[in-house]
């Protein structure tokens, strides 16, 4: 959340910063700002709203600067809370949360210093001024020593027109070297095409970028760092003729699945991991949001195919629930971005307690991969839409491969054959799923919506509901079908949309009982099913027929029409599905 950029070099800084911010806008888009240092003076422009609001307002001269695109944590989205924050000789952009900022702010105010924003970040500019005695790097060192929480910082000082300073603790920060100068950004794509060398700062590290050199420091000492080896993530992709990234990314589901299926048994790179799999007796999955739903789908698959117990916990709860790790425990942390603060903290805790930790992530150079014992890379390609789509299908492909491998090592067969059919089936579902548009138009004016399913279908219900609520802003719930009658049924009235997912033949009649209960109260039912015999039932207003696949793997297909439903409902309600309000793609704060 929040994107930061920095540049120092030969070229005018403003257009470079603006370009970088546009590429980082998926990290936050409620306000943006830029500071450029020229002839000893800071020129700062901040605007409420999206990065494009800065266009035409920036200082054209000056070849050193910093920029920020914000996702508000402390203080409403407004111009005065937008970054950069300036105090004395310093301008600062910050991504993260300073947990002790109340105490620090009080300390500054007791010295008579006036604060202009409600942010935690402004405190950093005040502390820098307080500790500054002519050496900005040393002031940054002393300042960061006082901070608790998470931060990626980029700092300018008017006394040092040829330097840009960086610091990182638990928030991602990359420095890069290019032909035109030196760069900094929260994420690699903002620097794509500009740099031939990229470095990821680790926690506790500082950097000074000058027009000619890039130096890293830890604990006051200069250190050597190796550049990143970034093969997979290029520039931010174009929309490729689609109106929105989300729809384009749904079109890539087939290849995301195909590229993320893994044959653990035959690939040499998994040799050590396979040994761990053979010794695994218990699995804990930690993740947030959509990735958490992948974990639930994986639980159904692993338990049913391999008979290994799996617990799935929301990462923000895991970190405070005093988890029990025994011998043979494998912890799988699932995160598209690999930067989700709660998931990283949960993985770190599991490691401290002796677990082997495997990261399932779409970003192989992320913070999560740094702390994990094994990295299982989903190959969905970069996902820009804030609502996760193809990355979810890719996570399922990888986790189902894992379930199949665990089953194989336990002598229970593998079901790889069934997995290999899924990419082609997903293409069929995608073309059918467009037919959901009508239902989407029909529910756009509803007060709320419900998603129900049993067994593996429950996971699809959860994900369908999350998708709908996050981009259409229609209140929605995903429920195990059998649980509806224990309370939520009270909310069903004439016309309430209910999406029932029905792919588990042994549970189909049971779920249809729930559908009948909904119908009896006037609910309007959309059935997403692979069982054609149910589509004509009187209780069903509309249906989408899925191709059959191994039933325990069915969420990888049944979620596709639900993603499409969310997309078209969001459009019908006039929302931008790529940038839902209040959300950001990468949640790097607790
Ligand atoms: C999904 O559509 C979300 N926007 C969100 O729930 C996301 O899945 C969650 O924040 C986890 O992100 P991660 O996979 O990058 O860790």
Structure description:
With 590 residues, the protein is α/β, with parallel strands linked by helices. Helix 6 (253-260) packs parallel to helix 12 (390-409). It has three domains: 3-230, Aminohydrolase, N-terminal nucleophile (Ntn) domain (Glutamine Phosphoribosylpyrophosphate, subunit 1, domain 1, 4-Layer Sandwich), CATH 3.60.20.10; 241-420, 3-Layer(aba) Sandwich (Rossmann fold), CATH 3.40.50; 430-575, Rossmann fold. The strands form four sheets. A seven-stranded antiparallel β-sheet has the order 3-2-4-1-10-9-11, covered by helices on one side. It has a seven-stranded antiparallel β-sheet with strand order 5-6-7-8-12-13-14. The chain contains 18 helices and 24 strands. 2-deoxy-2-amino glucitol-6-phosphate binds next to helix 8.
Reported by name, the CATH topology of the largest domain is: Glutamine Phosphoribosylpyrophosphate, subunit 1, domain 1
How many DSSP helices? 18
CATH class of the largest domain: Alpha Beta
Which strand order do you get reading across the main beta sheet?
Answer: 3-2-4-1-10-9-11
Bound molecules: 2-deoxy-2-amino glucitol-6-phosphate
For the record, the count of structural domains works out to 3
Beta-strand content? 15-25%
The CATH fourth-level homologous superfamily of the largest domain: Aminohydrolase, N-terminal nucleophile (Ntn) domain
Spans of 5+ residues with little confidence (pLDDT < 50)? none
Structural class: alpha/beta
The proportion of residues forming helix, as a percent range, comes to 25-40%
Overall number of strands = 24
What Rg, in angstroms, do the CA atoms define? 25 Å
| Alpha-carbon distance between the two ends | 11 Å
Q: Report the biggest beta sheet as strand number plus sense, adding barrel if it closes.
A: 7 strands, antiparallel
Mean pLDDT: 93
CATH architecture annotation of the largest domain: 4-Layer Sandwich
Shape: globular
